[in-house]
Amino acid sequence: MGSLSEVTTAAPDEEKIDLVGRTLLPAFVDAHSHITVLAEMVCLAKRSTDGSTSGDAAPTLEERRAALRIACFEYVNQGYGTAQEGCAELPELELLAAAAEAGDLPLDIVAYCGIGIADQVHRDYYMYWKHYRGRFKIGGYKLFLDGEPQDGSAWMKDSGKPRHTDVEVEEAFRRAAGDRTQLAVHCNGEAACEQMISACLRLKSAGVALYRPVMLHAQLLPPGQLPRLKEAGIIPSFFISAIPAFGDELVKTLGERARILCPAGAAAKLGIPFTLHQDTPVLPPDPKMAVDAAVKRETPAGIVLGEEQCISREEALAALTAHAAYQCFEENTKGKLKIGFSGDVVIL
User: Fold this and answer.
1) The dihedral of CA 333, 336, 338, 344: what is its sign?
2) What are the two backbone dihedrals, phi and then psi, of residue 342, each rounded to the nearest 5 degrees?
3) Tell me: the pLDDT tens digits for 296-320?
4) DSSP secondary structure, 213-242, as one string
């Protein structure tokens, strides 16, 4: 927006509000979570406490919509202007579309659908494809390459196994490229990260256009892979809050490899526009937790995992605003305090 004198000159008659030392920021942009799963948990909790519905009958669409609205305000109350549904199948798309058409959504929601239902999405939900309607849009596809280091299902160089062959991964990227859309890929172990990076580099060499592919979680992405990740044009979205949440258990499981969890410091030095996320409902949608985790990298026991990977508070905030907006192709409308951008703001 410019300096105080520049803003005052541009708008001399506007009301001035003293924030008394607090900070005004653009609303946070969620880089990855599962808002409909949080809504499902809200729905089940409500049923168990109010006794409004008995038996094992599935929740009605109206119940699910009401729960989704409560879940949305969990994000709004934390300063988010945009939330994500990071793995939408047909039931989740039905809910989000119904909420959008009813005007239920108090913030924008971007969904990534399983690539296996791509044809059905284009047939039944084309009106939401990469375009907001009722504050909901489908931003691209989702693919899983492995599991989690927390439960031992990540594909590591010495353990775990792939979920897809190299050919299948390339086919997924080619489908996304053909649809001119983004592919968000769940990768945690270094072998899964390497599979994604190698696929993107092969396709890039073959002249296939990729649309800001996202490496989700990237918990055990080695810093040595980052130059090739940058060359491939991949955006890493780090599950950085795993450090204060699960760091001590990961140290026991991974040993020295735990030091490189979510190497944000190395990514920042290379100028890679990384993002941070909470993977809600795994953890609450609290961006302040992500900032603190990225700056301090402390486990619950106070162990600092890889001090060289710590980043500044400003870099962490950029990962939750400007970089997150760039990740979802909204860098021209969100993520900055700038004339013509979204008016959603947060005061910390």
Assistant:
1) positive
2) -55, 140
3) 999 999 999 999 999 999 999 999 9
4) -EEEE-TT--GGGHHHHHHHTPEEEE-TTH
- Given its phi and psi angles, is residue 19 left (phi above 0), alpha (psi -120 to 50 degrees) or beta? alpha
pLDDT tens-place string over residues 60-86: 999 999 999 999 999 999 999 999 999
Q: Residue 86 CB: number of other CB atoms within 10 A?
A: 26
pTM for this model (two decimals):
0.94
Six-digit token pair at 283? 């953890």
- Whether residue 54 is predicted with pLDDT greater than 70 in this model: the reply is no
Half-sphere exposure of 27 (CA within 13 A, CB side): 21
Encode pLDDT of 91-138 as tens digits: 999 999 999 999 999 999 999 999 999 999 999 999 999 999 999 999
> Mind giving me the DSSP string for 284-348?
-S-HHHHHHHHHH-B-TT--BS-GGG---HHHHHHHHTHHHHHHTT-TTTSSS--TTS---EEE-
Q: What gap in Å lies between CA 291 and CA 314, rounded to an integer?
A: 9
DSSP SS3 for 143 = strand
Cα separations in angstroms, 206 against 31, 111, 230: 29, 29, 17
Task: Compute the distance between CA of residue 25 and CA of residue 320 in angstroms, rounded to an integer.
Answer: 10
Exposure class string for 170-194: b at 16+ Cβ within 10 A, else e: bebbbbbbebebbbbbbbbbbbbbb
- The tokens describing 3, both together, are 């300096």
Contact, 193 vs 217, CB < 8 A? no
Residue with tokens 């494809």: 129
